[in-house]
Design brief:
The complex is a heterodimer. By secondary structure, chain A is mainly α. Chain A has two domains: 267 residues, ABC transporter involved in vitamin B12 uptake, BtuC, CATH 1.10.3470; 87 residues, no CATH class. By secondary structure, chain B is mainly alpha-helical. In chain B, 69% of the residues lie in helices and 3% in strands. The chains are: A mainly alpha, B mainly alpha.
C-alpha cells in the first residue's frame, strides 16, 4: 500500500510542479518562456541519449537524427492530417507527440536492428551516417519542404511548457525505474561486459535495440514539441553539431548518471543563448584565456596523478589552481592589451560556442573521463548522508 | 511519398569509361585519406576523428605556402615550373606531420590507459576544436582557393577510345568547309565595303553554317567514346599511386614497418618484445597525416575547391567509411574501399542523383556491415570493450 501511495504522490507532485512552472513561466516574456521550454527539451534529449550511451554502454553520436525524424513526422502530420481529427489544444499536441515518438522509434528500430551487432566505434559511425542520410533525404524531399524547411501549421498556439517538462520527467522516471528494477539489470550487464552477459543468458541484441528504441522515441517526442513550438523546422535546425552538443551533455554529466545528464542538459543548453548577447571578445583576453586554461589543466592533471594525500587538501589544491588560472588570465589579458594585433582582433562571442563545447569535452576526458557525476545518482539517502545520518547504501545504481 | 526522383535522368552509356576514370580519380584521394584512418586504427584501435581536420590543415598550409611564394590575391606572377608544386607539397606534408604527431602526443597519449570510449570522445573533441577554433582565425578562401597559376599543368588529356560516327564525321568536315568559305566571303564583302544588305545576308549565312557545324560536332562527340582527364588530376592520381607504393614498401619491407605490424597485431606483446611502442605510434600518426595532407594539397591545387575550416569533414567521413568498408586496420582494404567509394559516388552522380552523393557513402557502409561486419577484407571479432 505504501508503495502505491508514494507512487501516486510523486506523480501528483510532478504534475503539480509542471503546472507551477507553467504559471511561473507565462508572463515573464517570450524569451524566458522559450528558455524554460528549451531547458525541458534538452533535459529530455540528454537523458534519452544517456539511456543509450550511458546505461546500455552503446555509442550513438547521431541523436539529433531521431530528434529530427520526430519533428518532421509530427510536422508533416500536423500540416496534412491534423485538421480532420477535430482535436484541440493539449490533446492534439499529445497525439502529435505520440506520432513523433512512434516515427522516431521506428527509425531507431531500423538503425538499431542491423547496426547493433556492431562494435562500439562502428556503431558510432553508423549512427553518424544515419543522421546524414536522414538530413540529405529530407533536403531533397519536396513534401517535407526540402532545403527551405517546413512551416508547421500547428492549429494552436503552443503554450504548454508543462507538457515539455512532463515529458522530461517521464523520461527521467522511465530511466530511473529501469535502473531500479529487474528489467534494467540486463542493460547494465550489457554495458559492463557484453560477452559475459550473453553467457548469462541476456539477449544482448534485444537489450540494445530496446534501449535504442526507447531513447529515440523520447528524442522524437522532443522533436514533435519543437516543431509545434517553433512552427518552422528545416534540415539546418538539426546539424551534426547538435548531436555532438547532446553528447557533450551526457559525457559532462557523467555517462550513466541520469542526474548528471539531466543537470548538464539543463545547464549546457543555456551557453549558446548566453553567448548570443555577449559583447565581442577581444583577441588579447581570448589568447590569455587559452593559455590560462592550458596551464590550469596541466597543473590539475599533475595534482590528480601525483598527489595522493588528504581529500580536503587536494580539493584546496584544485581550488587554488583554479583561482591562480583566473588570475593568470587577467594578468595575461592586461599584458596582451599592449600587443596591437591581439587587442584589435575581435571575436564574436556566439562563434565561441562550439569551441567551448569541444574544449570542455577534451578537458573533461583528460581530467575526469567518467564525467562530473560518474555513475552516481541523486537520491534522498545521499542527502541524508550529507547531513550526517547513517543510511545503508542500496545495491542498484552504483 | 514522392522523393522527387527521376530514374536514369542523365544516363548515357557512352560516358561510362569517363565515369569510371572519374571514380578512380576521386577514389584515389579517398584511399589516401583512408590509409591514415586505417593505420591509426590498426595500431591504437582508435578512430582518429581529427584526421579530416589534418586534411583541412594540409590544404590551408598549401594555401599559405602559395601566398608565401607570391601567388596571393592579385598577384601578377606567371606560371613557372613544377618546383612550386613540390614546395607546396613538402610544406603541407611537414606541417601536417607535426600537427598529427602533436595531436597524438597531447590529446590521445594521456588517454591511452582510459577506456576506449574516452579516447573516442577526445578525438571528437579535438576534431570539433580544430574546426571551430580554426574558423576563428583562418580565412575563408573562395574558389579557386589556390591561385591556379601555381599549377603549370592546366591542360586536358584527351583519349579517343571509339571514334565518332563516320557519317557524322563526313558531314562535319563538309560543314566545316562550308563555314570557312562563308566566313571568307563575309570578310571579303566587308573589306570591299559592299552594301549593308549584302553583308548582312552573308553574315547570316556564316552564322547558320557555324551553328550547323557546332551541332554536328556535338553529335559526333556524343557518338564516340572518349576520355578527358585534366593533367592536374592525372598527376594527382600518379602521385597517389607512388605514395601508396612507398607506404607498402615501408610497411612490408622495413624494420619500422615490421614493428608497426607487430604493434597492430598485439599492442602489449609488441611492447614486451622490445618494440618502442610510443615511437611506432608517433611514426604512424606522422605517416598518416602526411598522406592526408598530400591528398589535401593536391585537392586544393588541382581542383580549386573552396576552403573553409569544414573542408575536411565530408572527405574525412567518407574516407573513414572507405576504411571501414575495406576492413578497418587493413591497408589494402583501405585502398580498395577508397576506390569503391569514389566509383560509387561517381555512379550516383552519373545516374542523376547528384544530390544524394553524400548519402551513398553511408548507405553502402550500412549494407556492407550488415553482411560483413568486419568490412570486405577484414575479419569480424567480438571484442570486450
Amino acid at each position: 500500500m505504501k508503495f502505491f501511495a508514494v507512487r501516486a504522490g510523486s506523480i501528483a507532485l510532478a504534475v503539480a510542479a509542471c503546472f507551477a512552472l507553467q504559471s511561473f513561466a507565462v508572463g515573464k516574456g517570450d524569451l524566458f518562456f522559450r528558455l524554460v521550454f528549451l531547458a525541458g527539451l534538452y533535459v529530455t534529449l540528454a537523458v534519452s541519449l544517456n539511456l543509450i550511451n550511458g546505461i546500455t554502454g552503446q555509442f550513438s553520436i547521431g541523436h539529433a537524427a531521431f530528434y529530427m525524424v520526430g519533428a518532421y513526422g509530427a510536422g508533416y502530420m500536423a500540416n496534412n492530417y491534423a485538421g480532420s481529427w477535430g482535436l484541440k489544444g493539449p490533446l492534439l499536441m499529445l497525439v502529435l507527440l505520440l506520432i513523433g515518438a512512434v516515427v522516431a522509434a521506428v527509425a531507431g528500430l531500423v538503425v538499431g536492428l542491423p547496426s547493433l551487432r556492431l562494435r562500439g566505434d562502428y556503431l558510432a559511425v553508423v549512427t553518424l551516417g544515419f543522421g546524414e542520410i536522414i538530413r540529405i533525404f529530407v533536403q531533397n524531399s519536396p513534401p517535407l519542404g526540402g532545403a527551405y524547411g517546413l512551416t508547421v501549421d500547428a492549429q494552436f498556439k503552443f503554450k504548454y511548457v508543462w507538457m515539455v517538462w512532463l515529458l522530461a520527467i517521464l523520461c527521467i522516471a522511465v530511466c530511473r525505474n529501469l535502473l531500479k528494477s529487474a528489467h534494467g539489470l540486463p542493460f547494465l550487464a550489457v554495458r559492463e561486459d557484453e560477452i559475459a552477459s550473453s553467457a548469462m543468458g541476456v539477449n544482448v541484441t534485444r537489450v540494445k535495440v530496446t534501449a535504442f528504441v526507447i531513447g529515440s522515441a523520447f528524442a522524437g517526442a522532443a522533436g514533435a514539441m519543437l516543431a509545434n513550438f517553433d512552427g518552422f523546422i528545416s534540415p539546418t535546425s538539426f546539424p551534426m553539431e547538435l548531436s555532438f552538443t547532446i553528447l557533450t551533455m551526457v559525457v559532462l554529466g557523467g555517462t550513466g548518471s541520469i542526474t548528471g545528464s539531466a543537470l548538464a542538459g539543463g545547464v549546457l543548453f543555456y551557453i549558446p543563448e548566453y553567448l548570443r548577447d555577449l559583447k565581442p571578445v577581444s583577441g588579447s583576453s581570448l589568447v590569455a584565456a587559452v593559455i590560462a586554461v592550458i596551464a590550469a589543466v596541466y597543473v590539475v592533471k599533475r595534482i590528480a596523478d601525483h598527489y595522493h594525500g588528504d581529500k580536503g587538501k587536494r580539493a584546496a589544491l584544485y581550488l587554488g589552481t583554479i583561482i591562480a588560472g583566473v588570475a593568470l588570465q587577467m594578468i595575461l589579458a592586461a599584458v596582451f592589451k599592449n600587443v596591437p594585433s591581439l587587442a584589435n582582433a575581435n571575436f564574436e562571442a556566439s562563434k565561441l560556442r562550439m569551441v567551448i563545447f569541444s574544449s570542455t569535452l577534451i578537458i573533461l576526458m583528460l581530467l575526469r573521463p567518467q564525467g562530473v557525476f560518474a555513475h552516481h545518482e541523486f537520491s534522498w539517502s545521499w542527502v541524508q548522508r550529507l547531513f550526517g545520518k547513517k543510511v545503508p547504501t542500496t545495491a542498484v545504481s552504483v | 511519398m514522392d522523393l522527387g526522383l527521376n530514374v536514369w535522368a542523365a544516363f548515357e552509356l557512352s560516358t561510362l569509361p569517363q565515369q569510371v576514370i572519374n571514380g578512380l580519380l576521386l577514389g584515389a584521394i579517398y584511399a589516401l585519406i583512408a590509409l591514415g584512418y586505417t593505420m591509426v586504427y590498426g595500431v591504437l584501435r582508435l578512430i582518429n576523428f581529427a584526421h579530416g581536420e589534418v586534411f583541412m590543415l594540409g590544404a590551408y598550409t598549401a594555401l599559405f605556402a602559395s601566398w608565401f611564394l607570391g601567388y596571393g590575391k592579385g598577384s601578377t606572377l606567371e606560371t613557372s615550373g613544377p618546383a612550386n608544386l613540390m614546395i607546396l607539397l613538402i610544406a603541407s606534408m611537414c606541417v601536417c606531420g607535426i600537427v598529427g604527431v602533436a595531436i597524438e602526443r597531447f590529446a590521445y597519449r594521456p588517454m591511452r590507459s582510459q577506456p576506449r570510449i574516452a579516447a573516442l570522445i577526445t578525438a571528437i573533441g579535438v576534431s570539433l576544436l580544430i574546426q571551430y577554433g580554426g574558423a576563428l582565425v583562418l580565412p575563408i578562401a573562395p574558389p579557386p582557393s589556390i591561385n591556379e597559376k601555381v599549377n603549370p599543368y592546366r591542360g586536358v588529356v584527351t583519349m579517343n577510345l571509339v571514334g565518332g560516327d563516320p557519317q557524322l564525321l563526313e558531314g562535319y568536315e563538309k560543314a566545316k568547309i562550308e563555314f570557312e568559305t562563308a566566313e571568307k566571303e563575309w570578310q571579303a564583302a566587308r573589306d570591299a565595303k559592299a552594301p549593308d544588305e549584302a553583308i548582312r545576308t552573308l553574315r547570316d549565312k556564316k552564322n547558320d553554317a557555324d551553328r550547323t557545324m557546332g551541332d554536328l560536332q556535338r553529335r559526333m562527340d556524343n557518338s564516340g567514346v572518349k576520355i578527358r582527364i585534366p593533367q592536374g588530376q592525372l598527376i594527382m592520381f600518379g602521385t597517389t599511386i607512388v605514395l601508396m607504393i612507398m607506404l607498402t614498401y615501408l610497411v612490408m619491407f622495413t624494420a619500422v614497418g615490421r614493428a608497426m605490424r607487430a604493434v597492430s597485431h598485439d599492442f602489449d606483446s609488441a611492447s614486451l618484445m622490445g618494440i618502442n611502442v610510443g615511437k611506432i605510434v608517433t611514426i604512424t600518426f606522422l605517416i598518416g597525416s602526411m598522406l592526408a595532407s598530400a591528398g589535401a594539397m593536391m585537392n586544393a591545387t588541382f581542383l580549386g575547391t573552396p576552403l573553409t575550416t569544414f573542408f575536411g569533414v565530408m572527405p574525412g567521413v567518407k574516407a573513414f567509411v572507405a576504411a571501414v568498408l575495406g576492413g578497418i586496420g587493413n591497408i589494402p582494404g583501405a585502398v580498395l574501399g577508397g576506390f569503391l567509394m569514389g566509383i560509387a559516388e561517381t555512379a550516383v552522380i552519373w545516374a542523376g542523383y547528384g544530390q544524394y552523393k553524400d548519402a551513398i557513402a553511408f548507405i553502402i557502409l550500412i549494407v556492407v556491415l550488415l553482411f560483413r561486419p568486419g568490412g570486405l577484407l577484414g575479419s569480424a571479432k567480438v571484442e570486450k570493450v
